[in-house]
Structures are given as structure tokens and as C-alpha cells.
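Regression report. Comparing outputs from two consecutive submissions.

Submission 1:
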Amino acid sequence: MKCLVPLKGVLVIALSSSIMMLNAIDRPTSSHKAPKKGDHSILYQTSPNPIIPYKVQFANKDVDLDRLDMFERFDRELTSLIYGHSNTLLTLKRANRFFPIIIPILKEYGVPEDFVYLAAIESYFNLRAYSRANAAGIWQFLESTGRQYGLEVNDEVDERYDPEKATIAACKYLKYAYSKYGDWATVAASYNGGMGRISSELNKQLADNSFDLYLTEETSRYVFRIIAMKIILENPRSFGYNLTKEQLYQPIKYSEVEVSGKVESWSEWAKQYDISYLQLKELNPWIRSKSLVNKKENIYKVKIPLKGELLRSKRTFKVYNNNWVSR
């Protein structure tokens, strides 16, 4: 404030300059003409509408989009995902890390590869995903369902956060549901709505698949959201997502150490392998406590990242699907 008096002249000049600049901004120039009344074309970025085909495939079966309701349900989800840029873009980046983990397990258990897109819409491949309904991990298992399909869930260990074990559990669920319905789209709907509800509604509504059911909005949208994510991730560049291979999240190579006893401190344990507790947790999110009592003396395989795997400058960059990057 003491400088204001001697610099009064300078302040006047500065204010005058600012006013002139504001006036200049308000006045259109010859290269930037003022829009005509009702013309909004130069005020907003063009948002092209996705072209919807008459049919798409899910789990090796055609899905009819000629039906008006099917077209509109699919159009809603595809449009939503295309313009929900942040989560869709992050899903694409993370897919490069998690497709190589998930798809081989789906194949091993005889589940169509397209169910990788179910995991994509459940969690956006976020290992830490946790919902308001207390569902956790990439596949968003509830505690009770996780235990039912073989996952350990307690205060020390929560295998819902283990991408491999959770994928195996999901496969068991999906295979069992398929034995009931014989239709993979209905299986996918049951993953959201529950087998009990889907079975009940099939009987009440005299339908033989979930596409013909009147369901809650979330479940009614669910399978179309899976298919929309599939369409985008199969060829993201056609929807405006342009990435280089360096921008994709890379799989992390690791060694495994078996732990069968008590761990007093996971932080101290991590130091033995020249990593931090943070790095240990990032690769082993199923560890839920600072220590491990392990009264039952279970055997746990703990992942330790290999040297250089956590440094971008030391990485070799791999691309799971060449359609994901610009050539």
C-alpha cells in the first residue's frame, strides 16, 4: 500500500491500458466476426453423434438394434461413454495393463472374452474401486458374494482387490449363471440385477432373455453399457481417442514371495525388498492391514516389482491392441 502514492501515474496508465484491452476484446475484428442472432455454431465445439449400426455382437451372438427400444438404449450408453471423456480415457489406458491379466483367465474358464468389458464398466479397471453398496475391486464383488465364490474377505486380507483371484471368482459366477439361462446377455444382466431377480422377472414377464424384460433403469441399461464400452475399446480412434503407446498404462513385471506366517509390519517387510509400503500395496491391494496375524497359516503370494518396472525411463512399452494407438 505504501507504494501506491508515488506510482499513482503508473496506476492510471495501467488502468487505462486495461480498459482499452477490454474494449478491444468486446469489439469483433474482421477475422472474428460477431455471431448472427440465433447462430451458436462458433460458440460451441462440434459434437458429432455416433452412428448406430443395425446390429452388434456380444459374446459371439448378434444383438438386434433394428428394434426401436434396443437402438435407443444402445445409443444412450454409447453417447454417454464417448462424451464421458475422463473415465472412458482412463479405462482405455488401464486396459493395456489389465486385458493381459483378465482375458487369459476368461478363456481358461470358458467365458466369452467380451466379459472383460463387464469389468471395465464395473470399475473402469480401478483396483481400488469401492461402491456405496460396499462392492469392491475390479469386479465389484459384495463381501457375501465374494466369499460364496471362493474369495477370502476379512480385516487383513480382501481378495476382492486381487485382479487374478477376483477374475476367477467372476468366472465361477458367470458359468453358474449360464447354466441357468443359456444366454450370455442374460448372464450379464444378472451380474447387475442378481440371479434371483432376473429369474423371477423372466417367469413373471413370460420372457426368455433379459433384453425383453422391463427392469430397473440401471439393470435395463447395463448390458448395453457393456456393449458400448466394447465398441469404443475395439476402435477408440474412430471415437476421437488418440493415444501413443507411451500413454498407455503398462503391465508390471514382478517376482513372487510366499508368506505363510505372521507379518509384524508390512512396511518393514517391504523394506527388505527395496520398495515402499505404498509400492507394496499398489501391486498387492488385497493387503488390507499394516500387519498380518495369519492364524490359519495360509500361504499368500506377494508380488514384488522387478527393478526398473516402476520407472518410465527404464520401461519398454508394449501395446496389447494396436487399434489403441495412433500409428
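Submission 2:
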Amino acid sequence: MRGTLERHTWVFDGTGDVSPKFRRSCRYESFTPWLLAGFDLRLPADIAAGVAEAEAAIVRLDARADPALDPLARLLLRTEAIASSRIEDMQVEVRALARAEAKYDLGGSIGSEALEILRSVEAMQLAVDSVEAAPTITSELIRELHAALMQSAPPWTKAGEYRTAQNWIGGNNFNPCGAAFVPPPPDAVGPLMADLCEFASSELVSPIVQAAVAHAQFETIHPFNDGNGRTGRALIHAILGRRGVARQFVTPVSVVLGQRRDRYIEGLTAFRADELESWIEHFAFAAAKAARLSSEYLDSVSALRESWRAELAASRRAPRADSVAWKLIEVLPSQLVLTGSAAVSATGGAKPRVNQAIELLVECGILRPVTSGARNRAWEPIGLIDIVEELERGQ
């Protein structure tokens, strides 16, 4: 066991509308993990090989970075954030979420679940951007990630603040007795997170092992009232980026972890049982597969963009090489749903010329309208969402 169990007595505080059976005092055990200071691990040869393979796959993916592929970087990041949300049972279909995002960008209101997933995208972007802004992983950074993630959440979540009360996983909503897992008491959170940040900022182990261990330790500490899973998975990418193996592309490891959510939870449980090798092997496999899927995804979207270029070149109204229409095709992979304002911002073109370019791309069968009316119009790049859905299914 990688920690200690401590017995406690839960006493009803007399507040809230609670049925009699949950008012009775009861016993529970909290788990406080060992500190990571001085962490050292010698992996068996086969698992060490899997770790090396995963790191090499991510490095190869990152080496494909090119200005022409910049729009795809956001789609990979977006895919990771959405997959991370799905692990928490937040389910919004790809096309529906893309249209909700466009509506939100145009000032419209959207459902709370869609908005929360979009906040996950913002938090993931913050995790990636933090690599350039800060040389180390700090408690301040982790709280910023959580604040970005939970900015639309109810006040009780206390966005950006470590918890000051006991939380738990499973069981009932009123007390931790019978819970599947009870993290450490709140007074242990600060020291444990300081230790975690020191480990996450070191270079004593490989980046894959570091990300795997830091993530599992974070989930064990469960430092926030809510949003721990998504914050902990954003931490993975802050670590991989800081270690230099994933500076350009986010490897959507949550896509693979979410395919077998039960196995993912078993891996985190194995970590707490001091079965680190099992968890690291599972994490490395997920990272390697995610890198392979991402590379195939880049190929598919690049091929789709080439087909768009061919369609535009073959058009009876084929534009000049410096036209806004060609610029739009270059940025379309970052726009699952394109709005007029997004097209103007992405191309730097004047609004009338952008509108003409959009009309031409519709005529060529590259874009299709998803709204009606003269205001707040939006279009969908044909074929792009199909590729994204394939990636999110882990296929």
C-alpha cells in the first residue's frame, strides 16, 4: 500500500435535509498517500520498453509540427479535453458540441453541460500554454487550471481553491461511510500538493513515468471539491509539455483511457496498492496508442484539406492564389463549425471578401450552412467532423 489508512468517525452536523439513516454516526477510513520526495522506481525490462516506446511515439508526433498543421493542434487539444470530460460522464455529441460552441461565440446561450465541456478545452489550453509561461509545476498553476475549468460551476465547487472539507468517491452524498474511496483529510492536502509539484517539476524519471505517477498521486489526493479528474488529466499535458516531449501537439491520452474507464480506475487503484508497474504499463500503452491515432488523424485531415484544395482549383470560379478562399482552406481544420467572425479573424480579410470566399466554398461543396437567416450564420467543413468522431472513438 502506497500510503496509510486512518480511521475516523463521521458525525452529522445537523444541517441539510438528510434522512434519518444518514444522520447516524458511522466509521470510515481515509487514505493518505506517501510523499513522492525521493521517488525512485526500477521497471522490469518489458515495461521500461513500453515506456520508451510511448515516449518515442509522442516525440515522433510532435516532430511533425509545421505551420501548415497549426490548425490541427487545436483540434487535438479539443479532442483530449472532450474525451477527458466524457470519462466524467459528460456526453455531448461532436457535431452538437461544435454547433453549441459556434452559438456561444456568437453570443447565444447554450446548455450547462456543453458550456462545462468548453471550459475543459480552455483549461487544457491553459495547461499547454503554461509550459512557456512557467518553468515549473506549481500549486498556483494547478489552482489556475481548476479555476479555468470550473468558472461556470456552482459556488460550492470553490473554483481554484483546495478543499477544506472531507470529500469521497462513491457511496452516498451525505457521508463518506461506505464510499469506494476516501482521500486524505483536508489538512493534508496542502503539504501533499507541495510535494506533488516538486516531483512534477523534477527530471529524475522519464516524462511518461512522471506524468503517470503525478496523475495517479493527484487523483489520490483529490484536492478539489469537484473537477479533480479533468484537472488531473490536464496536469498530464503540462508535464509532458514541460519535459519537451509534447510541445506542439497534445496527445489525446484520455481518448484511450476512456475506452476502458473501468480499467483506468483499476489502474489508479493499483497505484494506491503500490502496484506501480501495472499502472505505468497501462498509462504507457494508452499514451503510445493515442500518439499513433493522432498521427493517423493528422494524415486524414491533411488528405481532406488536399481534397478541398483540388475542389477549389477545379471550380469554374477558381480564385487567385492570394485570395481569402485559399486562406480559409488553410485554417478550416481548426473550425468544426465556422462563423463569419471566426473567418474574418482567422484570415485577416475584409468582411465582404470573406463572405464571398465562404459563398465560393459552399458552391464547391467544401462548406455547408448549418444555420438559416441572414444573421449569425455558421457553416460546417464537409467531412471534418467525421474524422474527429473517428478519433474520439479511438479508431
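Expected: both submissions complete independently.
Actual: both completed, but the second showed a warning that disappeared on reload.
Relevant detail on submission 2: Residues 297 and 391 are 7 Å apart (CA to CA).
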